[in-house]
Each structure stands twice: as C-alpha cells, then as structure tokens.
Amino acid sequence: MRAVKKLLPVLWPILLVAPTAPSGAIRIYVGTYTDGESKGIYRLLLDPATGKVTPDGLPTETVSPSFLALSQDGMRLFAVNETGDSATDPAGGVTSFSVDPATGALALLGRVSSSGPAPCHLSLDRGDQHVLVANYWGGSVAVFPVQPDGRLGGATSFVRHTGENPTPRDPGPHAHAIQLDPSNRWALVTDLGLDKVFVYPYDAERGALAPVPRQVEMEKGAGPRHLAFDPDGKGVFVLNELNGTVVSFAFDPTDGSMVPLHSISTLAAGYKGKNSSAEVAVSPDGRFLYASNRGPDDIAIFEILRPSRRLRLAGHQATGGRHPRHFAIDPSGRFLVVANRDSDSIWVYRIDATTGLLAYASGPVSVPKPVCILMRKAGP
Known about the structure:
Number of helices: 1
Helix content: under 10%
Distance between the termini: 36 Å
Shape: globular
Mean pLDDT: 93
Structural class: mainly beta
Strand content: over 45%
Low-confidence stretches: 1-18
C-alpha cells in the first residue's frame, strides 16, 4: 500500500486523457481531505457490466472537499471546504462547479464562506434553488441561494445551535448533517454534540429555516451523525456515530413529527473493539438499509421490515480497507461503493437484489484520503 501511495502523483497525470465511458457507465466523484497527497475532487468511471472502476482524468483542485452534492440535472456540483477551526481561519467554504455533460469534468464557478467553521455536510433543496450546509464546530447551519449561473449568493438563513450535553466526545453543539425530507418542507439536522435531531420548517421560496425547530431527543451519548429517508418519505433512519446504532422513526410530512419505532446495533454480535459509525443509506427500492462502521471496518446490512419499518440484521461485509467514512449506492441500486479513508482506497460491491447482501465486484482503486462518494449516470 505504501508503494501505491508513492505512485499516486505519477499515476494520475498519466490519466489526463479520460477513458471512453462504457455504455451505461456510472460517473463517480470522490471528495477527499487535502492535508496529505490529495488534490481535491477525483473522478472515476464504474462499468455496470463488470463492476470495474477506472480513474477518469485529473482531479479538480479544491481544499478538503469532504462532502459533495450534485444538482438534479447533473450540471452543477457543490462541495464543502472543511476548513475553519482557528481564530485565523474562522470559517470554511462552499464551492460551486459547472459540470461538462460529456466528460464530467469540473470547472470552478465560485466560493462563499460557509458562515461557520468545519462545514462537513451539504444538500440541495428540491428544484436546486438553495444549498443547505452544516458547520460542525460551533453547531450552525446556513442556507445559500443558487444563482442562475450556478454561483452561490449570500446566506438567506443562518441558525446556531445552543446548549450543553455531557456527550463522550465533542460536547456542545456540533451539526453533522442537514437534509430535506422528500416533501421539501422540513430540514432535518443531526447534532452529534447535543444528541438531538432538529426539524426546521423550511420555506423553499425564501430559502429560510424557521427559528424555532422541533427537537427530537436521542439517547444520551448516542451522537447522531447522518440520516436517510425511506423512499416513501414517511420514515427516517438516524445513524448514531458514538453508540453505533440505527434508530428508525415514523415521519409525518404534514407536521414534521418523528416517532421512534426501533433501535438496533450496527455491530456484529460479540464485537468488543472501538467503533464510530459513519454513513447510512437506504436502497432505491426501500428494501434494505446499509451503515458503515469504523472499527471493525465493515458495512452492516439490514432488511427493512414492512409495514413496521423495524430493521432485521442480514449480515456484515468487510470494506477491504480502513476507516470506511462514506459509501454510496449507484442510481440503479446494483452497486455499493465504499471510501476507505485511512487506506486511500475505493472498493466496489455488488448488491444482491433478493437478500441485500454484498459481494466483491472490484477494487481497490487508489485515491488519497477519500471521504465522500457521489454517483450519477455518465453522459448528458
């Protein structure tokens, strides 16, 4: 692995000319941390016939693009720049890019302040009118309008969480993710430090978060990190980083209420080591849920039981590397792609449509410090 890492600066320039995309290919954008050898956002191509992944041109340089979001038409890509944790660098950034529809190449449009330190997550509202950002340090969230040229305007909404909580790590407000429900009426924010999910009424016309959100209490010390909606918009699954659980909720899009239904561990029976859970996703057909564990370095696989939305553990799949900080499921629901941060590697697994279980498809592909996977069908 050390030899591969040393070759990265040599290999990527050789790939200046991108390979021809196979029919039906999936384009993968990889967000990274740039405190080492990484240059920014890397592009890969996934061949759906074989599951093989190949590098796709040179990386797009930008500072620590640790989370990415793509517009519905695929023409704009947005990235947080996860900086800003000191008095001399008080805020991170949000950068926008245009996307070449033929090649997937990115061109810089502009960057704005994220309005807080260490932005670690962002999402787009329905219609791609606004970008919503979560700033980890200080626990704030902000909304930015997307202008006609794809650049971002000044913040239309900003809220900073307050409060104290004796969580085992990073006590106090720490917003870790912000995501709109499918109705586009509610912005859900997971706050790891406060052990809460904040449900903000969202005004899509003005890009505004209501100042007084509903607050959903999680178990003390749970550390809610990310969440995933059921495809029908009436259920939501919250992944807790610190205690390694997934909690399923009934979600009412008429009033934004969340009713807890079931909690289950993401860890295999008998596992006694350290762990911090990282990412959660629901398959496009709504049958299975996946969650990554940084400790055993695996993906927990659950069947979503209907109509209860309870979770049944189906198995675990090793990710092939260390610290699987993020993964994503391709739009067809056939492949799951994992970013292993501490082994600088991307692995691809094929999803069994009947059982939800994962089987090795390809990898590793070397990418330095990968921490976010974003996928879309290649081509215009």
